[in-house]
Design goal:
Bound molecules: S-adenosylmethionine, iron/sulfur cluster
Strand content: 15-25%
Number of helices: 10
CATH class: Alpha Beta
Shape: globular
Helix content: 25-40%
Radius of gyration: 19 Å
CATH architecture: Alpha-Beta Barrel
C-alpha cells in the first residue's frame, strides 16, 4: 500500500513526538522562560501511540522517527521502541540530545531501534552549557561513542549553526568525518518560538556552510537527494559523511515524505503550518480502526504543497517551539 498526498508525493515517514518535556533548554529551540507543558493526561499513552503507528503502517508508512522534547525522558522508552518496531515499520530512528543515551544505547538497539541522531552544536564544554542552559558535553560525547558501539549506526550528529554562537566550529565539526564514520548534518537555523533568538542574519545558509567546509578538501557528492531532506557529501579521503539540510535557502517541500504526530495526538502534515488533525479525541471516544484510518488519510490529503518559511512566517504569530512539534 502506498500513501500519496494531493500533490502526488509519496508519504511514508512519521515523526512521532512522545513528550514535549526536555531536560535542556537550547537557546535556538525554546524561549528562555520555558514553555507551558501539555498536561500529563493529554499526552498519548504508549498504547495510543502504537495504535496510530500501526494504522499508519497499514496505509504505507515505512519509517518512524521518535522525537520530542527529549524522548529519552519518557518512562518505558525501551518498551515503547519495541512495540513501535513490532508494528512492522522498516526503519526506526530516534533524535536525542544524548544526555541520557549512554546507559540506554544497548537496550534501545536490542529493543529494535535502528539508528540515532544526536544533537550537538559545540565541542566547547562552557559553550555547550551556555547553549543548552546547563548541559554536560562529556555525557553527550560518551553517548556518541556508546551509540556507535551499540550499533546504532551510522550515528548522525545534528548541528544547527547560528551566527555568532557556534558558526566558527563548522570546519571542526566537518573535520570529525576524517577519523570517524559519523554523519555530520548541518541544519539551517529555522524560526521557532525562541523569543527573539531567531533573526535571518543569524542563519548560516547551507551555501555558506559548504563554502567553509570546502576549505578542508574537495567535496564529493554522494547521491541525489532521493526522498530525504539531506544533500550528502564526503570530503575527499574522509570516512564519514556531511549532510546539508536547507529548509530555508533551498526548501525540499517537493520531496517531502513526512507527517508529524504531536505528543498530544495531533497529526501535523507540515512543520510550519497550523493544520492539525486531532487523532486523540476520536480515539478516546471509541473510534474504530477504520475511522482512525480515514482520519489519518485526511491528514495526508491536507498536506500543503510548501511551507511558508520564506513568506515572513515570523510575523504571523503562530510559531511553535521545536520541542513542542518535534523538530
Ligand atoms: N531533544 C531532542 C534533540 O535535541 O535532539 C529531540 C527534539 S529537537 C526539537 C529535534 C531537532 O530539532 C534537534 O536536532 C534540534 O537541533 C533541532 N532544532 C531545534 N530548534 C531548531 C531550530 N530553531 N532550527 C533548526 N533546528 C532546530
Ligand atoms: Fe530540548 Fe532538543 Fe529543544 Fe534542545 S533542541 S531544548 S534538547 S528539545
Amino acid at each position: 500500500m502506498t500513501m500519496r498526498d494531493s500533490f502526488n508525493r509519496r508519504i511514508d515517514y512519521l515523526r512521532v513526538s512522545i513528550t514535549d518535556r526536555c531536560n535542556l533548554k537550547c537557546v535556538y529551540c525554546m524561549p528562555p522562560g520555558g514553555l507551558r507543558h501539555i498536561q500529563e493526561d493529554e499526552v498519548l499513552t504508549d498504547e495510543e501511540i502504537v495504535r496510530i503507528v500501526r494504522i499508519a503502517c497499514r496505509q504505507g508508512l515505512r519509517k518512524v522517527r521518535i522525537t520530542g522534547g527529549e524522548p529519552l525522558m519518557r518512562k518505558n522508552i525501551t518498551g515503547l521502541v519495541s512495540s513501535i518496531k513490532q508494528t512492522g515499520v522498516h526503519d526506526l530512528a530516534l533524535t536525542t540530545n544524548g544526555i541520557m543515551l549512554s546507559g540506554l544505547a544497548g537496550k534501545l538497539k536490542k529493543a529494535g531501534l535502528d539508528r540515532v541522531n544526536i544533537s550537538l552544536d559545540t565541542m566547547d564544554p562552557a559553550r555547550y552549557r551556555a547553549i543548552t542552559n546547563g548541559g554536560s558535553l562529556d555525557r553527550v560525547w560518551k553517548a556518541v561513542e556508546d551509540a556507535a558501539r551499540a550499533g546504532l549506526s551510522p550515528v548522525k550528529i545534528n548541528v544547527v549553526p547560528v551566527r555568532g554562537l557556534n558558526d566558527d566550529e563548522i570546519p571542526a565539526f566537518a573535520s570529525l568525518t576524517f577519523e570517524n564514520d559519523y554523519h555530520i548534518r548541518f541544519i539551517e537555523f529555522m524560526p521557532a518560538a525562541c523569543d527573539g533568538t531567531w533573526r535571518r542574519d543569524r542563519c548560516v545558509s547551507s551555501a555558506e556552510v559548504m563554502e567553509r567546509i570546502s576549505a578542508l578538501g574537495a567535496l564529493e557528492r554522494l547521491e541525489f537527494r532521493g526522498r530525504g531532506p539531506s544533500r550528502n557529501f564526503r570530503i575527499k579521503g574522509a570516512r564519514g559523511v556531511i549532510g546539508i539540510i536547507s529548509p530555508l535557502s533551498d526548501h525540499f517541500c517537493a520531496f517531502c515524505n513526512r507527517l508529524r504526530l504531536t505528543a498530544d495526538g495531533k497529526i501535523r502534515p507540515c512543520l510550519f503550518s497550523e493544520i492539525k488533525i486531532d487523532m486523540k479525541t476520536p480515539m478516546r471516544n471509541g473510534a474504530s480502526d477504520s475511522e482512525m484510518e480515514k482520519l489519518f488519510c485526511k491528514a495526508v490529503k491536507l498536506k500543503p504543497r510548501k511551507h511558508l518559511l520564506n513568506d515572513d512566517i515570523t510575523s504571523s504569530g503562530h510559531l511553535k517551539a521545536m520541542s513542542e512539534i518535534g523538530g
